[in-house]
């Protein structure tokens, strides 16, 4: 059994981690912390977990993680970088669902996240936890930077094109749509039901933190320079990301075959038959990324549709996938939930 | 392994049965029929099942159920009563998710369902599949009448009061609210998104088919006469039933204790702490019924709140629970999904 | 023209007042205050009002209401009672959309609103602004206590029965369902989209502030004692209240005719044909209350369905209706919006 | 007063026409037809119109439009082209909300709409009713082809760039998102609540009927060739279109100023301040198109955000705007509804 700690378990990625880990055959949840909810039973806050988890939230100041093999950070950025070194020194592995270790260029990170990075050396060590490109490095890692929700869907969508070198990499466009849970469980006006329901809008068109993360990830797959226009939108649903990706073809290629080959052995990337239109609900509650490839009017613009559940493959599910890889477990263990439809 | 057939698998109870049975350790799905979708792959119609189910829908006219141990009917009423006898004669057991065998009084059934009943003798034999009251009979049954969605939530809510004889049984009120999936997957105008979203309404206030089913079920728990005002409402959500039940106390009783005792050993009925307000999402995708008991202002009106997922405990999950009981499997096998929240 | 001020215009009742008053032929909006948004243009906060309102929010500390004929309070409770006397002394009339002047019994008010009342004498003077019962008093009033959203729908639903003396008034039941805007625009976790969407729950079953308001209102229509079980629910829609009301008949009566007669001359109460099921969307954005009357199975339990838009007839629309009455304008002036459907 | 007829008033564009025309000061609704609902009162089908419209639906076979000045077609394609000639010969003007007269190239129309066009000469005469480009021609027209919902939002978004000749016109991208009412009121499975809610998907990526309409409209604004990748998506809301438009800059230009100048005198096109993110709810129920202009990272990709209510500016509102122009009424008459927010 793997002994597990969770830092910051009161948000949506936290409760999703709990849902998954509570039934993972090799996971034993030892401790979960929350400043605000210390002393509260986990299943009082999340009645969906009644009968599943007997723990209560611990005060982070008093938490003893030395009993843990691995600690998940489901915190806002800025927490994990502060606590990582001490945990690593205890021999505890870390899977950070926040953004602290995702961006290798510290200056870029500091610009987008608005604070000084306190552990730049650990950024260097951290492995970017996208199994579809970094499986081998994840296996031996102590510190995983779990990818962002948009970056997961967008990178998995673009990677075959980038690796094959068949598109203009300087003018990629990612028009992305996210369910509201992507904004987290913090109480703010714009994500109130009466604001976000029956409504659609873009945000952060001038610049979004996930753009440099995507750019870095795609740049690692090619020697060409990468530039990306990234426009995120908020859509009135709870879960789900739909990335609509546009690229200009630079040479002829059998797109469907390219994608099918690239993801042939990937347990969680599903390339749909030609002509498909993936729906976000077809991955609701599951760790799948489903991708469809289009070339409208046989023109030179490729349209890639890539969908995930932002809380699973875009966060907690991918984190557990990384854990499975790190501990030599079957990669799909405990994350084989069938999507909930309808 | 139990060999399983499904008749009519293209509706919401059908796809939910598929979701559950695809990962049930003792279930092997052999055949699934659909008149309209014969020849279509199941996962073409429901991409959420890609990689889970390799079958295609069979033409009912050509379906051979002799290979099956048990057949589930996920059909509109009128089908199961027509086909049940032939299956039973083949030695196949039946779990009917439709209404054909729920009402013992044939005249009442015919009045509410608007057709002649063609197998009244089988109605006599059929066991009403509410495990919390009929577990022993279910064990030995060949033919299960799986309860309706509202009747499950309403009966589980009222039963402790009725069995204890502490309320006026002639003036029960059930104000129930259902998600739109309860209306099925048939294309009709009132359940279109643009009709049912951002909207709330009652329906069938003059009389609804589930009222006699509830009345029959509650009458079986007492020697007193039962009468019930049943008002169903359609609420803009996909899944979930919320039954708000009102009864007038006839004598003093410790309500919380009454409910906790009644459901102490029930794996799927969860009596919440006093003062709770159960949310339908706390059972989304799961087989739980959660119940809270209130007595506002210490008056003589009891308010019971009972919630289920209409497609799970209200349909497919309870059907599999019944199958587990019939085949002496652990009652919770394959239906222990943790609710999806958020 | 009536010169108008609004105190606290950043919530949902505030923006709804603005929507209505911006096109009211006799209203001229002079000033609108907000502590948090002082200096911000109204149409920056609410782009729906671009081109309609040129004002910016004023600091309440610096606001001069002496130019106003009437001031609307769209504030949390506790503000209006504090400021009312000074305004009245300036000769300014007040329409208070908050709860400060609704409850005549000061002790009851203080119990439910958890603070000391600082203007009990004004409570005595205040007229409860439900035009369907108090039209004449409203005409001459300086201070209007605009009814709560639930109390409007529930009282309009029960009044004909209570006035006619045909039901058991000690066991009334109001099972009410509200859209999420009823909870206001304040950022709190339970009304986040990802919490309230695809979910249904009750709240405050042990006791809700609107229960004593309803009780007081109904008591004023009869010499009999009134008792009421009031159970509110939150439903995933933006606007709308659906009150499902239950009462036990004490004598025979032609219910449909009773309701039609009672509301014959009421411009905003619409009694639907017998057998109807009103949908909340049929009043979306309008000042109507639509009511349907049922007596299921010809039993002794009457079921009344009463719907409103909580922000219009349940708040801002009714406030303007009261203003029209106070200023001898046609009662329907400026509030004749046709509901937005779909 | 203008005497008005409506053909096919049971769909969403029909009921929206009714909502608008019922309060239009110069419109008198004389007749409304429906094959399926002949004899039914309009306000029985749409209770939101109770007290507003006393008509019942007429059988189209018996309808006498000679009393009408103008007839609106709110029908599926194929009807208006069949009936237009007879009406025009009666001296009745036509505003066709369907697609029958939108595409000038008959072969293109026939390809996309799958039927033979029976009135190609009238296509030549028809004026494309986008007031922002065709106001003068609309004034004298007998036959208006009212634009499609997507084409309205997309064209208004692209026009300033195209007219100014500052972008690569051969690689335009329109990533569009529509509320579900855009799919009409016809009962089909994909637009059921339980299918479309909490879900996001694209459709018709291989090709959509509105692509040639947009291409034709933009081509008319330039001498350059136009090509467009058009990807529509279905988003879980009732009303609203959000078009996210991408174009590659070919020369430097002050984008904000370009847009503000172009739409300076347009009553229904609202160019938002630089940096804005328009929300669809900010036009809900209104005839506005709001546009924001972005140039992320000062790169060469322009991002235009253009929103409308698909049933108003995208259909019924624009139709009445055209009527106002045709009859020399103030262009904004009867379509000045303030958006309903929240």
Automatic annotation (TrEMBL), chains A, B, C, D:
Listed GO CC annotations: cytoplasm
Enzyme class: oxidoreductase
This protein's pathway: Amino-acid biosynthesis; L-arginine biosynthesis; N(2)-acetyl-L-ornithine from L-glutamate: step 3/4
Any one GO BP annotation for this protein: L-arginine biosynthetic process
Annotated SUPFAM superfamilies: Glyceraldehyde-3-phosphate dehydrogenase-like, C-terminal domain, NAD(P)-binding Rossmann-fold domains
The enzyme's E.C. designation: 1.2.1.38
SMART domains: Semialdhyde_dh
Protein keywords: Amino-acid biosynthesis, Arginine biosynthesis, Cytoplasm, NADP, Oxidoreductase
Keyword Flavoprotein: no
Keyword Disulfide bond attributed: no
Coiled coil: none
Active site: residue positions: 149
UniProt domain Semialdehyde dehydrogenase NAD-binding: residue ranges: 3-141
Family to which the UniProt record says this protein belongs: Belongs to the NAGSA dehydrogenase family. Type 1 subfamily.
Lineage, top ranks: Bacteria, Pseudomonadati, Pseudomonadota, Betaproteobacteria, Nitrosomonadales
A Pfam cross-reference name: Semialdhyde_dhC_1
Database matches in HAMAP family: ArgC_type1 (MF_00150)
Reaction(s) catalysed by this chain's protein: N-acetyl-L-glutamate 5-semialdehyde + phosphate + NADP(+) = N-acetyl-L-glutamyl 5-phosphate + NADPH + H(+)
CDD domains: AGPR_1_C, AGPR_1_N
PANTHER family documented for this protein: N-ACETYL-GAMMA-GLUTAMYL-PHOSPHATE REDUCTASE, CHLOROPLASTIC-RELATED, N-ACETYL-GAMMA-GLUTAMYL-PHOSPHATE REDUCTASE, CHLOROPLASTIC-RELATED-RELATED
Stated name of the protein: N-acetyl-gamma-glutamyl-phosphate reductase
Any one GO molecular-function label of the UniProt entry: NADP+ binding
Native species: Nitrosomonas stercoris
The protein's role, per its UniProt record: Catalyzes the NADPH-dependent reduction of N-acetyl-5-glutamyl phosphate to yield N-acetyl-L-glutamate 5-semialdehyde.
Localization, UniProt: Cytoplasm
């Amino acid at each position: 059994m793997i002994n597990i700690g969770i830092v910051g378990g009161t948000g949506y990625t936290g409760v999703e981690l709990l849902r998954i880990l509570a039934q993972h055959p090799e996971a034993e949840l030892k401790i979960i912390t929350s400043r605000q909810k210390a002393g509260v039973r986990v299943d009082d806050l999340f009645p969906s977990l009644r009968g599943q988890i007997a723990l209560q939230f611990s005060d982070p100041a008093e938490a003893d993680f030395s009993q843990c093999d691995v600690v998940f950070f489901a915190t806002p950025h800025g927490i994990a970088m502060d606590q990582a070194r001490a945990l690593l020194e205890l021999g505890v592995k870390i899977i950070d669902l926040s953004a602290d270790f995702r961006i290798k260029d510290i200056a870029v990170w500091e610009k987008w996240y608005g604070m000084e990075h306190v552990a730049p050396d650990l950024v260097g060590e951290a492995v970017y936890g996208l199994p579809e490109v970094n499986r081998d490095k994840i296996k031996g890692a102590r510190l995983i930077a779990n990818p962002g929700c948009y970056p997961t869907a967008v990178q998995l969508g673009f990677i075959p094109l980038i690796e094959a070198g068949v598109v203009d990499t300087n003018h990629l466009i990612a028009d992305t749509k996210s369910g509201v849970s992507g904004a987290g469980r913090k109480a703010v006006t714009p994500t109130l039901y009466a604001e976000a329901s029956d409504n659609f809008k873009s945000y952060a068109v001038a610049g979004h933190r996930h753009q440099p993360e995507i750019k870095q990830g795609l740049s690692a797959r090619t020697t060409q320079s990468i530039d990306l226009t990234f426009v995120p939108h908020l859509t009135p649903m709870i879960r789900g990301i739909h990335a609509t990706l546009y690229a200009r073809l630079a040479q002829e290629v059998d797109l469907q075959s390219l994608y099918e080959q690239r993801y042939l052995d990937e347990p969680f990337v599903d390339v749909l038959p030609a002509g498909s239109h993936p729906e976000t609900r077809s991955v609701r509650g599951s760790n799948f990324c489903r991708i469809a490839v289009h070339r409208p009017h046989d023109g030179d613009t490729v349209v890639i549709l890539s969908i995930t559940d932002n809380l699973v493959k875009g966060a907690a599910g991918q984190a557990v996938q990384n854990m499975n890889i790190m501990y030599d477990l079957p990669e799909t263990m405990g994350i084989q939930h069938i999507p909930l439809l309808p």
